[in-house]
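Task 17 of the worksheet. Students: predict the tertiary structure of the chain below and write it out as structure tokens. Keep your answer in the requested format; marks are given for formatting as well as content.
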Amino acid sequence: MEPTTETQARLRRVQSELRREFPHLAEDRIDGVVQSVAARLLERARFDTFVPVLVHRGARERLT
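Model answer:
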């Protein structure tokens, strides 16, 4: 599924939040994890309303 414009904006906010939460990690690593988790979820999603919340949780778990 292709994410809506709103979901894309929310995913960018997830990246920003995780960058602030993990300032010691490279931004490229954070962005890559967020994109990877998002892609995995979006390929199975019927709608994308909750994808950013799930991406935040999944990416955070992978970064800790």
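Marker's comment: The mean pLDDT is 97. Residues 19 and 26 are 8 Å apart (CA to CA).
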